[in-house]
Specification:
Oligomer: single chain
Number of strands: 9
CATH superfamily: Coproporphyrinogen III oxidase, aerobic
Order of helices and strands: HEEEEEEHHEEEHHHHH
CATH architecture: 3-Layer(aba) Sandwich
Number of helices: 8
Number of domains: 1
CATH topology: oxygen-dependent coproporphyrinogen oxidase
Strand content: 25-35%
CATH class: Alpha Beta
Helix content: 25-40%
Strand order of the largest sheet: 1-2-3-4-5-6-9
């Protein structure tokens, strides 16, 4: 069973990586590929750096196991007499070079609990969200409509529920700001049998890749100014703050003794924290904050 699940996640990883690489020029279509093993598991991390579209994009498969459930697993309070746990998943983070192209995040995973007799319990989780800095309403609408169409094929209640959960989760309480314009986020989900749930995750991977690629094709080649690039750098700081302070995936990886190099690969390649937002960038900030306060759930 574990081998079948591993193959499924590796297929999802390859599909997304191929989709992202297709957007790059031919000379940038050779990512860094790092097959790794650690005391708690193994994985494959693929990195695109300094491309014509992506300043940095990372697509990682990981499989870890252990006897003690990290608190960030979300299941430790409900499971007794654990023999071991296994967690597998694919995570993606894309930081485009052009500030008019939005950052995006994608993650799918499954968590399995075993007793001495075998598999005791399992669940899936994941989601994807969009973080524009110079937002286009048409991109945001496309993003949400595409996700709704995909989830409606499985259950017509899923999209709205998961979209609201996404807005709730990707929020920086210390700044009272949403991280981006949302998407979907879900955890502790069982959709029919385990393989049916994995099929849902694969479909989400396809939808993410296709829709995000459409947006990048619109924006990646547009002209931008030095001020717009600086604004992107400053807003990337918000992204880093969320990942370090609140992201469950980051916490789980660190708490389970994971590979720090891979866990922190989601960090932006370059950021800027300014004490005050420069006056010439205030117009971008005002518009972005207005967009972030709107609900884009369709």
């Amino acid at each position: 069973m574990s081998n079948t699940i591993e193959r499924k996640f590796l297929e999802i990883q390859d599909m997304i990586l191929d989709g992202l690489l297709s957007l790059e020029s031919k000379k940038n279509r050779k990512p860094i590929v790092d097959n790794w093993k650690s005391k708690i598991g193994k994985g494959k991390t693929c990195v695109i750096e300094n491309g014509n579209v992506f300043e940095k994009a990372v697509v990682t498969f990981s499989s870890v196991s252990g006897k003690n459930l990290p608190a960030s697993s979300g299941m430790s309070a409900n499971i007794n007499k654990i023999h071991k746990f296994e967690a597998m998943g694919v995570s993606v983070i894309c930081h485009p070079k052009n500030p008019k192209a939005p950052t995006s995040h994608f993650n799918v995973r499954t968590f399995m609990i075993f007793d001495k007799k075998g598999l005791q319990n399992w669940w899936i989780g994941g989601g994807c969200d969009l973080t524009p800095f110079l937002p286009y309403k048409s991109d945001i609408t496309l993003w949400h409509k595409s996700l709704k169409s995909m989830f409606d094929l499985f259950n017509k209640t899923f999209y709205k529920k998961f979209a609201k959960e996404c807005d709730k989760y990707f929020f920086l309480p210390h700044r009272k700001e949403r991280r981006g314009v949302g998407g979907v986020f879900f955890d502790n989900l069982k959709y029919k049998e385990h393989l049916d749930s994995l099929n849902l995750l694969e479909c989400l991977g396809k939808e993410y890749t296709q829709t995000y690629s459409k947006i990048l094709k619109r924006r990646a080649s547009e002209k931008y100014s030095k001020d717009q690039k600086l604004f992107q750098q400053i807003r990337r700081g918000r992204y880093a703050e969320f990942n370090l302070l609140h992201d469950r995936g980051t916490k789980f990886g660190l708490e389970s003794g994971g590979r720090v190099k891979s866990i922190l690969s989601s960090m932006p390649p370059s950021t800027s924290w300014t004490y005050e937002m420069p006056k010439e960038l205030k117009k971008y900030e005002t518009r972005l904050l207005k967009i972030l306060k709107e609900s884009w759930v369709v």
